[in-house]
Amino acid sequence: MHPYLAVPATLALVVRAWSNKSLTPTGIIVAALTALIHALHPWNVFFVLLVVFFLGGTAVTKVKHDVKAQLTSSSTGASGGEGPRTYIQVLSNSIVASVLVFLHYRQLLVQARTVVGRPACWPYGQELLVVGIISNYAAVAADTFSSELGILSKSKPRLITSLGFRVVPPGTNGGITLTGTLAGFFGAFTIALTSAVLLPFCGSEITLPQGFQVTAREENIWGLRAKILWMLAVTLWGGLGSFLDSFLGGWLQASVIDSRTGKVIEGSGGKKVPVRSPNAKKEDDSSRKIESGLGLLDNNTVNLLMALIMSVGGMIVVGYMWNLPLGSFLSSNAWYGNT
User: Fold this and answer.
1) Which pLDDT tens digit goes with each residue over 80-97?
2) How far is CA 259 from CA 256, 264, 287, 288, in A?
3) Structure pTM?
4) Which of 49, 104, 158, 275 has the most beta carbons within 10 angstroms of its beta carbon?
5) Strands 255-258 and 288-292
6) Integer angstrom CA distances of residue 214 from 119, 200, 218, 219
């Protein structure tokens, strides 16, 4: 990405995050470094995806924030609702994508030196790292939209990890609603649409490198049908990521409720919620109860695990469909079957 675009865009994000208090100071620093890593890549699409995810996530977080604040409570004793996101929350959603963006950037640099005449576009059926990056943002966007809008559903959430899908309080980890599900797929669609518009797909004008004994053919270029299928696949995969996050959260993350109010207690910055309040008196020790989950992970670790599974899983699934070996995403010369 050109510096004259990346620098002012990153500064604008920093100013917006600071003025809207959507990130903590350390969260802003880490977000700025994440943006710079994405800006290193010659393609604009990955930086824009980060921006779309940030702006979209911020927007849905603020939707009826006062209403959401009354549905849950905070482990600090205040009302619920998402506060400024910390650097750990930033990393849990973007670190996998950042690593893949850097790897793909390195792959392009090596290819530019070793593959004569390599076109500056994405050929169909190659470069699985691109799939992993898009999968990451589709999944975390779906999860954010689902969580922030699903809690406003008029219907009670049902626990995805229970056999009978029992009703649970709003904000319970693993609780799903139709509203949240649809919101999740819409979040994934914003990423799918952005990628379809900005990805440098190789089209019919492709010029093949010297020495490759193939000609431009339908399976090597992105036609309209392939792009539409790409959008549908990204939307579906991102929505499945939201379900995976709900399952992992309902299974591995403890949901603690206040038995006096029946509200879910949210951990500050996505941290674990102690079953006993640090400020509680002895007679209040039993006011907090575990509604569900094993309590092995906190929300940030669940988000990171989900993003990793969906990114790697997306590359594995697409690699199988494209008949590419699993290790090809690390090969600097994996282009048009040249490995």
Assistant:
1) 566 789 999 999 999 999
2) 9, 9, 5, 6
3) 0.89
4) 49
5) antiparallel
6) 14, 21, 12, 11
